[in-house]
């Protein structure tokens, strides 16, 4: 596995990052702010994605990049495969509503292909997934955001120091089992139960380039990946263009 300190550095150019399962660009935007040139790939049409992207199956696209050698133009790969299988929001009481373990699970196949790239990589998933290493866990309160949104990151071929988890200031606003609770955070998922408006979601997540609720509720706050990207570039001692 290629280590960050071995990556080719080119003065005056940004290192390239491949953003797989990119959705509307929450993760990609954070990496761009950190100093990467970002290319995305998503199976859905994403006109709000703010960077060049390939419209198609992410794993098929990655396999093609590996087969042709084009993957070598990238310094690192980020992947956010579908998270519903085994996610905390789709088990327990929600399973009885048909949201349980019937969803497609692409984590293992994503990891297999990422290992074949020879590049450092990041796999992102929410809480509840037991099939990824929790090399890093991030929470909105670590960055002063208006969402909790815990996310776990498996790091292939490199490491990062875990931030201390900051105690939450209160509850997530909304209804729980018919009772309304107020609090300093909004729920970045679903529609009912006292969920936030689109402008509230945008403000809480730090996302202003899409007003599509589905894209906002699936996004990673860019602050998370900006932190990850800056840590990677610092380890690689990459000379990033301004």
Task: Describe the overall structure.
The protein is α/β, with parallel strands linked by helices and 242 residues long. It has a single domain, classed as Rossmann fold (3-Layer(aba) Sandwich), CATH 3.40.50.150. It has 6 helices and 9 strands; from the N terminus they run βαββαβαβββββααα. The strands form 2 sheets. It has a 7-stranded mixed beta sheet, sandwiched between helices. The chain has a two-stranded antiparallel ribbon with strand order 8-9. Helix 1 packs parallel to helix 6 and helix 2 runs parallel beside helix 3. The relative contact order is 0.20. The N terminus is likely disordered.
Structural key phrases:
Rossmann fold, 6 helices, alpha/beta, 9 strands, two-stranded antiparallel ribbon, 242 residues
Summed up:
By secondary structure, this protein is of the alpha/beta class.
As laid out across the biggest beta sheet, the strand order is 3-2-1-4-5-7-6
* Rg computed from alpha carbons, rounded to a whole number of angstroms: 18 Å
Mean pLDDT: 87
Q: Report the sheet with the most strands, covering strand number, pairing sense and barrel closure.
A: 7 strands, mixed
Per DSSP, the total helix count is 6
Portion of residues in beta strands equals 15-25%
Shape category = globular
Distance between the termini: 29 Å
Number of strands: 9
Write the layout of secondary structure elements.
Elements: E1 16-20, H1 26-34, E2 37-42, E3 53-55, H2 58-68, E4 76-79, H3 107-117, E5 121-126, E6 136-138, E7 151-156, E8 174-176, E9 179-181, H4 198-205, H5 213-218, H6 222-236
Parallel strand pairs: 1-2, 1-4, 2-3, 4-5
Antiparallel strand pairs: 5-7, 6-7, 8-9
Protein name: DNA methylase
Organism: Streptomyces zinciresistens K42
């Amino acid at each position: 596995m290629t280590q960050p300190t071995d990556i080719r550095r080119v003065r005056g150019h940004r290192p390239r990052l491949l953003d797989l399962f990119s959705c509307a660009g929450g993760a990609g935007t954070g990496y761009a702010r950190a100093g990467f040139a970002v290319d995305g790939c998503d199976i859905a049409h994403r006109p709000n994605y703010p960077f060049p992207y390939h419209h198609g199956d992410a794993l098929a696209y990655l396999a093609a990049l590996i087969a042709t050698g084009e993957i070598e133009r990238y310094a690192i790969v980020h992947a956010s495969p579908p998270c519903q299988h085994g996610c905390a929001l789709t088990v327990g009481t929600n399973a009885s509503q048909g949201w349980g373990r019937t969803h497609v699970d692409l984590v293992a196949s994503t990891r297999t292909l990422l290992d074949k790239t020879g590049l450092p990589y990041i796999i992102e998933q929410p809480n509840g997934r037991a099939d990824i290493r929790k090399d890093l866990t991030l929470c909105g309160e670590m960055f002063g955001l208006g969402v909790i949104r815990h996310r776990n990151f498996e790091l292939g071929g490199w490491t990062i120091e875990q931030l201390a988890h900051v105690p939450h200031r209160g509850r997530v606003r909304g209804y729980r089992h018919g009772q309304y609770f107020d609090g300093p955070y909004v729920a970045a998922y679903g529609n009912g139960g006292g969920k936030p408006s689109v402008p509230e979601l945008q403000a809480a997540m730090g996302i202003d380039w899409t007003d599509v609720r589905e894209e906002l509720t699936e996004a990673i706050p860019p602050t998370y990946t900006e932190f990850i990207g800056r840590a990677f570039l610092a380890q690689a001692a990459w000379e990033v263009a301004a």
